[in-house]
Amino acid sequence: MQIEILKGKIHLATVTGTDLHYEGSLTVDQDLLDKAGMLIHEKVQVVNLNNGERIETYCIPGKRGSGAICLNGAAARKAEPGDRVIIIAYAQMEEAQARSWKPRVVFVDERNRIVQTAKKSGHAKTGHES
């Protein structure tokens, strides 16, 4: 049996822009995508801590080192620049593999600069993982 499990996340990123008239998707600094193990066009969930919105979209690459986190198309209505978000990617795998899986987690500051990366074990230390 396959289950869906956390693959990677970018924790507490700051939305840098929105573009209602763009075709759609989520622009993310390519450095952040790489560190979180997220692929271009991969489906992600965006959780907005400011307003509680949860949306699904896909990633497109932003300029390396730019700190870009931009919601495009209809998703632009779900956030404002300055909102804090968690960007989450999931993977499907067999339960046996999932038991030893360690997702990539990228922690960023308010300017979306990487402050820490980790491969998380299956048990959260704080109980506050998203």
What would you say about this model in short?
The protein has 130 residues and is mostly beta strands.
Describe the structure.
This protein has 130 residues and is mostly beta strands. It has a single domain, classed as Barwin-like endoglucanases (Beta Barrel), CATH 2.40.40. Helix content is 10%, strand content 48%. A nine-stranded mixed beta sheet has the order 2-6-3-5-4-7-1-8-9.
Number of helices: 2
Domain module tally: 1
| Average pLDDT over all residues | 93
Strand order of the largest sheet: 2-6-3-5-4-7-1-8-9
Q: What integer value in Å does the Rg equal?
A: 14 Å
**Major sheet: size, sense and barrel closure?**
9 strands, mixed
The span between the termini is 24 Å
Shape: globular
How many runs of DSSP E, i.e. beta strands?
9
Order of helices and strands: EEEHEEEEHEE
Provide the structure class.
mainly beta
Question: What features would you highlight for this structure?
Answer:
130 residues, mainly beta, Barwin-like endoglucanases, nine-stranded mixed sheet, 2 helices, 9 strands, 10% helix, 48% strand, globular, disordered C terminus
Q: Helices and strands in order, then pairings?
A:
Layout (H helix, E strand, L loop, with lengths): L1 E13 L2 E3 L5 E5 H7 L6 E6 L5 E9 L6 E4 L11 E11 H6 L3 E5 L5 E6 L11
Parallel strand pairs: 1-8, 2-6, 3-5
Antiparallel strand pairs: 1-7, 3-6, 4-5, 4-7, 8-9
